[in-house]
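Quick one: co-fold with manganese (II) ion.
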Amino acid sequence: MHLLITNDDGIYAKGIRALANHLSKTNKVTVVAPDRQQSATSHAITLHKPLHVERVNLGDETVTAYHANGTPADCVKLALGALCDEPPDLVISGINSGANLGLDIIYSGTASAAAEAVLQGYPAIAVSLTGPPFDFSASVLVAERLIDMVMQRGLLADTYLNVNVPPRPYEELTGIAITRTGVRKYRNSYERRIDPLGRSYYWQVGEVLQMHNEPDTDVRTVEDGKVSVTPVHFDFTNGRLLVTLKEWELTL
Ligand code: MN
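Sure, here it is.
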């Protein structure tokens, strides 16, 4: 199988190396990842400056790896449009350092890389480790298991899997559950500091708020020590309001 791997934490992150080096034992692996930290860049793409790509050595000769000065979505587009020598069977984004639960996926570069793959017609999985701590050994095995299942069973053409793995040894995971996206909110706070030139600047330190979540949500599932698997697709139209708005009988 040919697997394309990307992430949003950058090519030097431990999670992508653990994933690529594990999967390359039994698959052909191509890695195209950002050359720096690109978390929370969502689905941004680069249009007004050049993209520079370089071959890199991930310490495993069998892995073909590149880094690019773009976003996660750029990396997927570059890989599929220019770099891969043959189309991948599946695209995996991760393993991310940190959760992508609830509406985190709006901001997440990890999730958006998987979304970009789906938009281009490839099945995709986004995998995040909800640490700390950040020992990727269990999440790598979970990713491998899900890749096998997706290749056997297939996915819907417009849908990727958003997977969150609690930070536990594989034997201590309490199961795996199919979930829906829950609610995760942050208290927005900014630390105001003074730089060496006397100017003030702000540093965002969002703090996760405890929200009520039903047992079938991704948030609750990882709290219970289980792996959460959410099928995600885009449908931005609010169907309920669509009906109500028609009742307005708008005219010009
Ligand atoms: Mn990240």
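If it helps, Residues 8-9, 39, 96-98, 110 surround manganese (II) ion (CB under 6 Å).
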